[in-house]
Every structure is written in structure tokens, then in C-alpha cells.
Design goal:
This protein is of the alpha+beta class. The protein has helices spanning 4-14, 23-38, 57-67, 78-93, 137-152, 156-166, 171-178, 182-199; strands at 42-46, 52-55, 100-108, 111-122, 127-136. It has a five-stranded antiparallel sheet with strand order 2-1-5-4-3. A hairpin with a 4-residue loop joins strand 4 and strand 5 (127-136). It is elongated.
């Protein structure tokens, strides 16, 4: 994995500029690296040939899930690479346009990843790269649901049901997941909607 700091250092050697990187540049690079690593979304940077230049921690976890193997957390699945190739083809037709392609990869109902690909033009890299973001849709919806759970003051059981409901589970699927009846789900959903209505007045 190439960090931002290492990228700057490598570029300095290639351009044969022996001067040291100013201290504030190192601090800025270190800060940016920490920000990228702390993101919930996965961030990948790929070359035009599919070589992995950088992947943050979240990206490694997501790639391991997509490849269904922890040992393959650095391998880019075909579904992502095909999207990159489509972007490359579109860039040839629309060279001046800023294009973002997106798609979803579903492993199961609760594990859906939104993939977005765009061009990353960085002068220090001397060539364009693909910037790929990987969003775990379930986790994103769960975070929204957690905010709403506090806002509506839901009980623990209502919170479980609301999280699944926000993740697009049907009443029947929620019932099966929580080992309760569909009527129980309906009863809790009625209470949840009443609390939502009261909080918005």
C-alpha cells in the first residue's frame, strides 16, 4: 500500500529534485492519510492497467468480503474493474466531461455495496488514475436509522425493527429475522410511525 507521503517522496526522486519535503507538507500528507483511513467508505486508487495504488482500511475489508477471502483483500473484483473499463471507454467519447459511473454489488439482502468510479487527475502522479469509492449501503442506512432511533426515542425492539425496515426488509423478512410474527412487526411499526408523527409536530 502506497501512502500519500510515500507518493510524494517517490515523485521527488523521479524528478531528481533532492530537496527535502517541507515539514508542513509532511504534516498535511499525514493528516490527509489519517482522514482517508478513518472513512467508513472504502477508497481505492487504481492505474489504467488495474494496478492497486492505494486502498484504505475500509476498502481492504470490503474487498475481502467481495472476494469472500481475507487473503484476497488486495484483489480488485471483476465487477469493479469492468466499471473502470467502462469509464475509460466513455472518456474516449467525452474527453472533456467529468463522468462518474456507479453500480451496486449485492452479496445478499443485507450486504449491498455501491461502487462509484471517477477519474483522479493528480499532477504528482504524472498520469490519471481511477478513484473508486465503495459504500456499504446497509451500514449507511443503519447509521441513518440510528440517528432516527434517538430522535424518535424508540425502544430496543422498535430500534431493531426500524433498522431492518430502513434497510428495505419487508415485514415478513423482518419477522423471520427477529423470530416474531408479522402482526407483531405491524404493531411495532404502528407505534414507530406514531412516535415519528409526534416528533415532527
Amino acid at each position: 500500500m502506497i501512502t500519500i507521503t510515500k507518493t510524494f517522496t517517490t515523485t521527488a526522486v523521479q524528478t531528481q529534485q533532492p530537496q527535502e519535503t517541507p515539514y508542513y507538507d509532511v504534516q498535511a500528507a499525514s493528516f490527509l492519510q489519517e482522514v482517508i483511513e478513518s472513512l467508513q467508505d472504502g477508497i481505492l486508487i487504481l492505474t489504467k492497467t488495474g494496478e492497486l495504488v492505494h486502498a484504505n482500511t475500509s476498502a481492504h475489508h470490503i474487498l475481502a468480503q467481495l472476494n469472500q477471502d481475507r487473503e484476497r483483500s488486495g484483489v480488485v473484483p471483476n465487477a469493479i474493474w469492468n466499471l473502470c473499463r467502462s469509464l475509460l471507454e466513455n472518456k474516449n467519447f467525452f474527453p472533456e466531461e467529468s463522468i462518474v459511473l456507479s453500480n451496486e454489488i449485492a452479496l445478499d439482502k443485507a450486504t449491498v455495496f455501491r461502487v462509484r468510479v471517477r477519474w483522479l487527475n493528480v499532477d504528482k502522479l504524472h498520469h490519471s488514475c481511477f478513484l473508486v469509492t465503495l459504500e456499504n449501503r446497509y451500514e449507511s442506512l443503519k447509521n441513518i436509522a440510528l440517528t432516527e432511533i434517538q430522535k424518535y426515542d424508540l425502544t430496543p425492539r422498535e430500534a431493531e425493527i426500524w433498522c431492518l425496515y430502513r434497510a428495505k426488509f419487508s415485514y415478513k423478512e423482518i419477522a423471520n429475522q427477529l423470530y416474531i410474527t408479522v402482526n407483531t412487526v405491524k404493531k411495532h411499526m404502528k407505534n414507530i410511525h406514531a412516535k415519528r408523527h409526534n416528533s415532527e409536530q
